[in-house]
């Protein structure tokens, strides 16, 4: 449950890599040494570690096509726990090095393996593994928190705070809590709170009028092929975010999610650790087995004691019968030009009031677009500056028919070749939809203002909201071969 | 001072070894301590100065005594530091913990240890900070963490303080109670473990530890206990060992105290941060596992909350509980539910990729209530993972490569288990997926896509190598891919190597290599580019390693590429390409079917030996040819054997393997630079140019001599060169490595443009003890002026290394360019005198470039004769016996003349000069000054 060392590395796709911060925990290292006896492998110095890590992550020597150590086809699980092969001063294997990356920042740590020496225990039997992952993720959030520009001074100033943050959250290599991400990196003073014990994750006391903010955000993903042999796919998942400003050491709040009659049940529910108790029926529905129609379908009650900062109370997935927008995309190669035909239909159950709705039609492995003779029945069409992308802004509303079309020809006669993409060769092409619909959810899930209960003396102000947006919403050209992406093949 | 020290600290932490290279640890430690003691120093800086002591205590305090002194020093700094600098004091406690535990060797503990322990316990009980300045960081929490770390290092250290710790936790209502709880749980677990190791320990001892009504026996224990120096090693997890090895403490049903301590910790666990909560639950799991009297159902109340959690570490703890207690805590429904939950989590859209991969690993190592397989080392598929459930985890091309491979592996295991061999749709899906990855690679995927595809291909082969239908097709597809992108040759060779290594019974790799050999040998050579050819040769080399593969195709291919007529490839004399060809030949020489390909192979080698554009390659081909034609098969195999041993480590260079294969040759292929000059060129003692015995005068010539003389220059090469001789010797620097040098190649470079570029010169060898070789340098002047030349050399030493060195510059003196009159050999003295006279007349007119001059000096007659004898004899035109006037003609290539009439006058010796290149006058003047002065 302890870490031997911690590193924070910045790089640009493997180039210009440098260790921005590193920390070794001497006492944990001593434990590692005594626990593993003769098989002990010491943590190498920073430069050496950096090189080994980059090689293992496949980031080093980007100019060389094949590097045996990096590109060997032999499969071994590499992520999230890596093996580093040290050659000097003594040969040995450093395991398990956990590494997580986001953008240009890679965080790594080496958890202590508290097993008797000899056989390597499976990763899943080491609690330090998940602790390390949680801790790294927390540090990552802290370092890249909104408000800190990714590459700029934000990171530098947060790195400068790190020594004092570590003294707080992980003084001797055993992570105790995650750094706070708010603008105030330091928790408020320790205060005695009477008889009631204060939760360790509640960093202070709120004084003022009670305000509870609950918002349900649903995301819909889809893969549409327009092809009989291939089943279209879509899924929906939602998160319930809360911000609770409530007085008291351990205040009680209950949020209830409800579905419309005949709504399909919420599945795969995950809850925040501040939820005090759960009814077992809440957890029964799962996306990996078939729903027999008798499952519990709400209302879903979540009693909890909120932390001060905003948090995700719970998340769920849902199986909705139809995708919100059904698309058809057809391309035909006609001599040097491409004939484009697109139809998008908005399902009648979806509220026809968008914050935005854009369709992007990128074209790869071709020259830039020259002549674009394309008509749309609604909305506005733009050619991107790079001349390889059509942007179709559908605006706030679909027409009354709930159907829009695009028809026309594109001549790829531009002076320069456009971008290449190995996935989209020949007639393999797609439309990607970006949309956001306020005040609606596909699953029908909602939080009624009156169902939010706060056990406090004063009457709280309660704000609830809902929204739906798209992510990875692809419509593939039905005349080309779409890449296999079925995640739900029926066996 | 402080800022300098801060920089030093960061340099130290970056690389202690490099830092200590320049200074010693004592100096650095003394510097740190001095600054830490300084009251005026900034406390924020002081916090930074502690980091070397926290991170590398053993380096800075390499011995007990230094550790002891440093610890005492830090303790005194602690007592003197104002309480308001909480952060500094906290960091100081951390540093003290590190110094006290890490600087002593394993055997003993420092004398300051008990004092520090007392200090920590005292701080842990000091609740005054609540009413004081309400600092953000409580010293108490740090003290607790230090105590926890010390307890982890020395299990049992605090077991006598359990009651105290329990009390502290109980009283604490601020969020610090978490720190006490973590400490208490660890101490409890260690105490219970120690009891399990003692004979006759039971409920009473346990109660004594928890309840505090310590018996005398316990008191005695405390004094002799761990705190006083007897050491115990840190404990590994007790529930991690093989099944059934958990140590147990038999207490009988009566252990109320323990039960109530556990319940109270569990009740409050909700109040802890997920990280601390997971650690606490894990420690309690260990305790319950060791004490059979406590039923695991004590955790039941927490389970539902834990199963629904979004926190990876909390769910993980639940799994570990499952692993420890199996069906005594989890019914089969619970188990199925937990397993489904894992499947859901390993593909949940809201979790991060590392978390999902972690859950995937948990699926493969799921602790089943009734495991069927007992192999606990390898990944065994849980029975609960049906193909239907697993279909949620099918790999898709949009997955990142780690996820993709992990899913591919998992699904392969599932379908293998389900016995899908012939017409399973799952297997079909996997193969289809592999094909779509191949398409991406084919249409120019990035390096990551390529590596991922080959890894997936390996996985597929590893699991389904027996399903011929797919594997044969894969071979074909790979050949297609190779023809389109020959640069994947190393990947394909690697794939063949790995499958052969991991699947010794499968012939797939052999089939692939055979197929590759076939497609290569069928490719028209006219369509092959040079890079293609290099990759082809690599693949063929690998295929030639297989005794079972017939090599006739390879031979056909080789014979196709070597005739210079067929392509310009091999006639180009590319050394690397030549080595590629030889590499294949070398493997063929040890191939079991050598007999049947003796003649074609000999032909190829002979052809290369005779016609290849690179000498080195020709030499090696000749060697192979000789080996092939003269040695018996057995001897040949022995000579060339070391590669067959499979050791890629073999770096020995034998005569028969001088080339190729990369890395081992780096130092040989690198040219090393000498530090000082090793060799030099010194002027050879000029054998005097003999005055030629001239043909006695023939009759007066009819034709005008000057014209005849000048006509000779119509040929550009006529008399245009000067030959200089040098001795190549060692310098005074003695270095045994360079006593014997071979293949010395001298390179000369000009410092001005008076001469034409010079050719490199080769000297076969230079031995210190042998006479120095003579180096003849031929200069072709453009203008006959003195100059100097830069000289460098490349040579080989006895150990086979190649060196580059710079020699001292050599000077080309003015007189070294003098040549005698290049008159036709048939001419006698009269003809020469006629030329002299003719030229003198022309030059005296001083038109154009011509000039005349007079140089005078004092010389005895005898001295003059000697001087002429010494310096001008080869150039004399007049009869040397005519002592009243010497006439000398100096010819300076390409076409300059200096004419001298030397005579003794009354007052002095006169050198009358005439030249057709007035710019030579200063040089002549210098020269005359020099020779007359000596």
From TrEMBL, chain A:
GO CC entries: AP-type membrane coat adaptor complex; cytosol; late endosome membrane; lysosomal membrane
CDD domains (alphabetical): AP_MuD_MHD (cd09256)
The UniProt record lists the keyword Protein transport: yes
Swiss-Prot/TrEMBL keywords: Cytoplasm, Endosome, Lysosome, Membrane, Protein transport, Transport
PROSITE patterns: MHD
UniProt-listed GO biological process terms: endosomal transport; protein transport
SUPFAM superfamilies given in the database record: Second domain of Mu2 adaptin subunit (ap50) of ap2 adaptor
Domain MHD, first and last residues per copy: 209-476
Pfam assignment, any one: Adap_comp_sub
Principal location class: cytoplasm
Membrane topology recorded in Swiss-Prot or TrEMBL: Peripheral membrane protein
Cell compartments where the protein resides: Cytoplasm, Cytosol; Late endosome membrane; Lysosome membrane
Gene3D superfamilies: Mu homology domain, subdomain B (2.60.40.1170)
Assembly and oligomerization: Probably part of the adaptor protein complex 5 (AP-5) a tetramer composed of AP5B1, AP5M1, AP5S1 and AP5Z1.
Family from the record: Belongs to the adaptor complexes medium subunit family.
Protein name: AP-5 complex subunit mu-1
From TrEMBL, chain B:
Keyword Transport: yes
Positions of the AP5B1 middle domain: 254-636
InterPro entries attached to this UniProt entry: AP5B1 (IPR038741), AP5B1_barrel (IPR048980), AP5B1_C (IPR048981), AP5B1_middle (IPR048979), AP5B1_N (IPR048978), ARM-type_fold (IPR016024)
Domain AP5B1 C-terminal: 835-931
Magnesium found in the keyword field: no
Domain AP-5 complex subunit beta-1 N-terminal: 30-100
Domain AP-5 complex subunit beta-1 beta-barrel: from-to ranges: 740-810
GO BP, one annotated term: endosomal transport
GO cellular component terms, A-Z: AP-type membrane coat adaptor complex; lysosomal membrane
Sorted UniProt keywords: Protein transport, Transport
Protein name (Swiss-Prot/TrEMBL): AP-5 complex subunit beta-1
